[in-house]
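User: Reviewer 2 asked us to show a designed sequence for the structure in our supplementary figure. I'm pasting the structure tokens here. Could you produce the per-position amino acids so we can include them in the response letter?
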């Protein structure tokens, strides 16, 4: 299993919370991405058991879609943009929505954010992001919950990588993002241009071409875009 899964709707792995540390440890190893070399992340690489695992075996372990172990294109682009434009987050309170590997939140802390609240609905993703934050000597505040609709009263900037991958979630996120923007919160989105991306509600800030990397989520995805969300 090498993670090349275009079009997959990623499911929460069926793993006991007590096993999360062991699962992340055995499934990933530290790697540096060519596009974001400032950071080191635990990812699926050729030396890990998950790379060699068949789809059937991975399914039996509840790991058929371990999105937290791959460097998604949108997240890479958003992390790159934040690192290259630190005033966007410097001294600000940041929400890293759908943190996954933690790459975007870690980049925000490296760029000088006052704090980063990293949210996920998957305990394995939280564990992976926690380990990645420690690997990069930064601290994130983790929240295991669906926070769509949260008023984010103590947040200045929302960063969201790769969240527009299915209809219902895309619609919920856009409504929420627009509400936040109307209240003065900056919302930045990283996405390679997936089908459900609401481009008419976004303003393009940057476009990237990614170098080849075995840890990316799909072999056909080699670009990333960064957008800001318009209120209306």
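Assistant: Here is a per-position design you can include in the supplement:
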């Amino acid at each position: 299993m090498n993670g090349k899964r275009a079009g997959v709707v990623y499911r929460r792995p069926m793993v006991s919370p007590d096993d999360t540390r062991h699962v992340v440890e055995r499934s990933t190893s530290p790697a540096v991405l060519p596009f974001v070399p400032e950071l080191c992340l635990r990812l699926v690489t050729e030396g890990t058991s998950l790379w060699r695992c068949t789809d059937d075996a991975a399914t039996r372990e509840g790991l058929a879609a371990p999105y937290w172990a791959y460097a998604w294109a949108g997240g890479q682009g958003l992390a790159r943009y934040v690192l290259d434009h630190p005033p966007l987050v410097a001294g600000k309170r940041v929400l890293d929505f759908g943190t996954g590997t933690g790459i975007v939140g870690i980049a925000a802390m490296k760029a000088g954010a006052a704090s980063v609240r990293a949210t996920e609905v998957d305990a394995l993703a939280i564990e992976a992001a926690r380990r990645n934050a420690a690997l990069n000597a930064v601290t994130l505040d983790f929240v295991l919950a669906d926070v769509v609709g949260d008023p984010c009263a103590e947040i200045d900037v929302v960063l969201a990588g790769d969240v527009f991958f299915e209809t219902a979630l895309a619609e919920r996120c856009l409504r929420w993002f627009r509400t936040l923007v109307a209240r003065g919160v900056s919302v930045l989105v990283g996405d390679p241009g997936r089908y459900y991306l609401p481009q008419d509600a976004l303003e393009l800030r940057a476009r990237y071409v990614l170098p080849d990397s075995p840890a990316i989520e799909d072999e056909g995805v080699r670009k990333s875009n960064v957008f800001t969300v318009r209120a209306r």
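For the response letter, you might also mention the following. The first strand starts at residue 29 and ends at 33. The chain is about 30% helix and 25% strand.
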